[in-house]
Amino acid sequence: MTDDLNAPLGVETKTETRRRRLPPLMPVAAGLVGAAVLAIAGTMLFIRNPLGGEPRAVAAIATPVPRTAERTEAQPAPTPPAASDETAADGGTTINIIDGMSGAKREVRVAAAPATDRTAGLDPRLSERGAQGPLPRIAPDGRKPSEAYARSFRVPSGQQSALPRVAILIGGLGIGQNSTAEAISKLPGAISLAFAPYGADLERVVMRARSEGHEVFLQVPMEPFDFPDNDPGPQTLLTTLSAERNTERLHWAMSRFQGYAGIVNYMGAKFTASEAALAPILRETAKRGLMAIDDGTSPRSLMQQLAGPLQQPTLRGDVHLDRVPTPAELDAQLARLEARARERGFALGVGSALPVTIDRVTQWARALESRGLLLVPVTAGVARRPPAG
């Protein structure tokens, strides 16, 4: 290879000649960028595209219909709007889709979803609007939710009318979807169900339970002795809170769904043992026409003692069915429940929505009448409950 020392003076090398013949790169690059900018500007000036290439969709939004339970007697049900270009008579919707490049509009038909009436069987006179949702109340004519939402029960004629009666209340529903669905579908309709206020889409689930013939109750979370190590959940009623704060939390739980005949304590051994904490809650529920059910798990509970002077219908569980959730123990507790019913004329068993509980109670209920007992809903046991003492 030649270098500057070995090259003849005044003679150019081939490499230098080639470099001088190559055009400069910077001017060429600048020219290309300028041409691209001019092309984009020309496109924006001469092509009509008001949306700038962004896809858009325009949909008609109908005014929501107020829930039936939130209407008052003076407010008739609103009439749905007539079908128009945006909404067809079958409830579907036409959506206008605009192409982002050309601006062309085309209509796409979206069928309406099947409607489910979540207020079926509910009496709007038994509900009023609260700060957190609909709350139960006594109707102007004196009708109470404990009466309206009780499962109808005909007293058998003849010798059967004197048969001992047994009621079962299964709680903890609404949280686990599978266990809730099994309890609703498998258990006889005469068995009452209690729903915790934490489940998703509780109104739909409770409506299904009621359509299957079950009467329902609301489980209100209350403070146990080992709180907060054992925590019922958000909005738990606490002995350390004022009556006003606990009433607000009670209203929150009450507004989760409608159509229940009364309340049941959810845990709450400490709360139900405190007269100062429990009395305002029972006054509020009695004022709203609800039953008060004590699940019977705490011997210190004052619920029946405080509900009596309020003329509030109340019951206390006689047998906890699944304290030990095994088939053998469940069968033993059901036999104990039968014996208590024969002894006193009525007995209430309380259990949880465990698969083993659902299976054993379902099988037990099939042959109950052949053993000389009647299965009745919880509300039917109020008149048969002997005085406490």
Question: How would you concisely characterize the structure shown here?
Answer:
With 389 residues, the chain is an alpha/beta fold. The chain is built from 11 helices and 14 strands. Strands 6, 7, 8, 9, 10, 11, 12, 13 and 14 form a 9-stranded parallel β-sheet that branches. It has a 3-stranded antiparallel β-sheet with strand order 1-2-3, with no helix packed on it.
Please characterize this protein's 3D structure.
By secondary structure, the protein is of the alpha/beta class. It has a domain at 140-381: TIM Barrel. It has eleven helices and 14 strands. The strands form three sheets. Strands 6, 7, 8, 9, 10, 11, 12, 13 and 14 form a nine-stranded parallel sheet that branches. A three-stranded antiparallel sheet has the order 1-2-3, with no helix packed on it. Strands 4-5 form a two-stranded antiparallel sheet. Strand 8 (216-222), helix 6 (243-254) and strand 9 (262-267) form a beta-alpha-beta unit.
Strand and helix layout:
Layout: H1 14-21, H2 25-46, E1 56-58, E2 93-98, E3 105-110, E4 127-130, E5 133-136, H3 145-148, E6 165-173, H4 177-186, E7 192-195, H5 202-211, E8 216-222, H6 243-254, E9 262-267, H7 269-272, H8 275-287, E10 291-294, H9 303-307, E11 314-316, E12 319-320, H10 327-344, E13 346-352, H11 355-366, E14 374-375
Parallel strand pairs: 6-7, 6-13, 6-14, 7-8, 8-9, 9-10, 10-11, 12-13
Antiparallel strand pairs: 1-2, 2-3, 4-5
Helix pairs in contact: 4-11, 6-8, 10-11
